[in-house]
From TrEMBL:
It comes from the Bacteria. This is Outer membrane protein beta-barrel domain-containing protein. It comes from Flavobacterium segetis. Residues 1-22 form the signal peptide. Keywords: Signal.
Length: 277
């Protein structure tokens, strides 16, 4: 993604250098902000997210212009196991270097997820006057979506970790000093490893002239990630394995169970802002 961010930032700088007389804008957007996932063991609830943004639009003709900006966004949601009590399996290595199958069972497992990101949009705008002081606007383009923090807070009524060593046909379910056993009222925090991606972005709305120097802008928007923001090279247990304790387990999160999972931000809602001529 290094090429993408350099490409987009480069275009934004060029537009700025050639658009000192452009129309500037500042505003915010709010609506449904979902972190779409194809992890089969997980389901999520929909919550409200939003962004604040600044930028400018350089007119090319009476109807067309090109714009760029900077946005700070936040997505949040709750994620659950598909079943209230489920067992997921992963491969781990203990403190002695022996490999084993790690079976984790939880009850009423839940994650509170919060994703924060910087967004750099570049878009083409079409506008048409439809009445005195009122313009119709349509914007379409791309955004570079750079996550700055993807935090998870996990909780469960209980966690039970069982090890199975297939070479010797041995199961261990109660050896706390080696990380095997049960724990009640589990809670832990963690972070997903992420990477920058491109998003598609669309806006459809209207501009209302307030005076010769200021306009009110109101629109509907749709942003959708084109690739996964997850960045990890191996599958992990959603409740981490601790080789020295059964009560101090790290939260890796349900999305970490599949290194190839498609985790994409998707948001739609209302955008409101002011234009400055």
């Amino acid at each position: 993604m290094k090429f993408n961010v350099k490409f987009i930032v480069g275009i934004a700088v060029i537009l700025f250098c050639n658009g000192l007389n452009a129309q500037f804008y500042a505003g915010m957007q709010a609506g449904v902000a979902n972190i779409k996932s194809d992890v089969k063991a997980a389901r999520s609830s929909t919550m409200i997210g939003g962004a604040v943004k600044i930028g400018y639009i350089k007119s090319l003709t009476d109807h067309f212009g090109v714009g760029a900006g900077l946005e700070f966004s936040q997505y949040q949601q709750k994620v659950f196991l598909n079943q209230g009590s489920s067992t997921l399996t992963n491969f781990e290595v203990d403190a002695t270097g022996s490999a084993f199958i790690y079976n984790i069972t939880t009850g009423n497992y839940k994650e509170d997820q919060k994703l924060q990101a910087i967004q750099i949009p570049i878009f083409l705008q079409y506008k048409k006057n439809i009445n005195k002081g009122i313009d119709f606007n349509f914007r379409a383009g791309i955004k570079y979506f750079l996550p700055t923090n993807y935090k998870i807070e996990s909780s469960s009524s209980f966690v039970k970790g069982i090890a199975y060593y297939p070479d010797v046909n041995l199961s261990i379910d109660n050896l706390p000093e080696y990380g095997f056993g049960s724990q009640t009222n589990y809670s832990a925090s963690g972070n997903y490893e992420t990477k920058g991606i491109l998003m598609s972005t669309f806006e459809l709305g209207f501009t209302f002239e307030l005076n010769k120097k200021n306009d009110l802008y109101a629109a509907m928007f749709l942003d959708s990630g084109l690739k996964s923001i997850l960045d990890q090279d191996k599958n992990e247990s959603y409740v981490g394995y601790n080789p020295t304790s059964s009560t101090d387990r790290k939260s890796n999160g349900l999305y970490s169970t599949d290194k190839n999972a498609n985790i994409k931000p998707v948001a739609f809602g209302l955008s409101l802002g002011f234009n400055f001529h």
